[in-house]
Amino acid sequence: NIKDIPEPVDHVISCVPASAALQLIKDCATKGVKAVQFFTSGFSEAGTEEGKQLESELCLLAHQVGIRIIGPNSYGVYCPKGSLSFVDDFAKESGSVALICQSGGNATYIVREVAKRGVRFSKAVSYGNAADIDEGNLLEYLATDPDTEIIIAYIEGVKNGKRFSQILKETARIKPVIVLKSGISETGARTAASHTGSLSGSNKVWNGFLRQVGAIRVYSLEELIDMAVTFSYLPPLSGNRVGILGMGGANSVLAADDCTNAGLIVPRFSEIIREKIKNLIGTEAGTILGNPIDLSAEAFEAGYYNILDILANYEGIDLSIVHFPIGPFPFPPSQNKMIWDFLLEDVIKAHKELVKPLIVVIHIPSRSEDYEWMLEAQRKCSKAGIATYHSISSAAKAMARFLHYQERKTMSENQS
């Protein structure tokens, strides 16, 4: 029993059966506990009258004795600064991104995946059914949290729409807030109700709502992660014109399509720029130099640094995208690694020494060795402060959202 613990207790993490939850709250009250996080399920998400009633009684009792509840049906709190975590392999270092997530499984996935790309968290909270502490409470706290600069959120439904709307609007004025709203289809809404007992709302309503309050909407976990990476690494961009550098003609064509479809501009390089690049590699045969740049075999000798130097001094672009399509080439794994390592070193050097922002895309791995190189390259890039992405399409969408946020924020500041 918690009453048998001789020392004071501030925070309780509980996985007792739902039937024992009320007694636990009473016992916690005698110890002066301030908060209880219930991993336990079997409450409103079960869809039964008994579960809903028990959750209601739990909250009422907790309020009466001055205890706040996280959950039930939640993983709880990850706070590296306070050495608190719900998974043993989470990073021990703190960062500037905060996550609020209705799903425990998604919270675990997001923290792990973002960590692979060098991003660290100030806090991450899986809040489950939101019987007491909800998304509004968490946003309100994070808005003024000095350790948090960026907020990402996975939300299935909200308890108090009007209050949440006001808090989100106020928070988005202070910090970027990126939201993944699930349960927007009829089937998804039904599933959300059985997962966390949430009422979801229509896709059109959420589109308009998030646009009005100034939050950034994404449509997948991968996009949510991409935006956390983007805001963590990128400085403000001066415009939407991109220069694309990589290998493979077909990949270059797709890259141009992906960037254009996302609303970025891929300007054709001037003859002066084309001539400068041509002089570096000695030939234009078998290459594309007009933007995107496809060097193919010439990249092995010419490298990327000098080309990125040319792009950094070219006023016609605002951002360089360097992509590594590591799967399609026929080289053996050892030679593949040698080539990509050589080119990646050039990119990292360019990022450190040149003024124009650049990002890296590592895509279409096809062998186990490719995946190993991708993870190693991500670590090198994150250590150097470079944002990495898994496709040109996802990188382009992230850039477009980032630019739109910049424009909207500038407009808002000018009006005020």
Describe this structure in words.
- By secondary structure, the chain is an alpha/beta fold.
- Helix content is 47%, strand content 15%.
- The strands form 3 sheets. It has a 6-stranded mixed β-sheet, with helices on both faces. A 5-stranded parallel β-sheet has the order 11-10-12-13-14, with helices on both faces.
- Helix 4 packs parallel to helix 5 (161-174).
- The longest helix is centred in the C-terminal third of the chain and has 24 residues, at 392-415.
- It is elongated, with a radius of gyration of 25 Å.
Layout of helices and strands:
Elements: E1 11-14, H1 21-31, E2 35-38, H2 49-65, E3 68-70, E4 76-78, E5 97-101, H3 104-116, E6 121-126, H4 135-143, E7 150-155, H5 161-174, E8 177-181, H6 186-196, H7 203-213, E9 216-218, H8 221-233, E10 242-246, H9 249-261, H10 271-281, E11 293-294, H11 299-302, H12 305-312, E12 319-325, H13 333-353, E13 358-363, H14 368-384, E14 388-389, H15 392-415
Parallel strand pairs: 1-2, 2-3, 5-6, 5-7, 7-8, 8-9, 10-11, 10-12, 12-13, 13-14
Antiparallel strand pairs: 4-6
Helix pairs in contact: 1-2, 3-8, 4-5, 8-15, 9-15, 10-12, 12-13, 13-14
Task: Provide keyphrases for this structure.
alpha/beta, 47% helix, elongated, 6-stranded mixed β-sheet, 5-stranded parallel β-sheet, single chain, 15% strand, 416 residues
Lateral strand order in the biggest sheet: 4-6-5-7-8-9
- Give the beta-strand count: 14
The dominant shape is elongated
Structural class assignment: alpha/beta
Distance between the termini: 56 Å
How many helices? The count is 15
- β-strand percent reads 5-15%
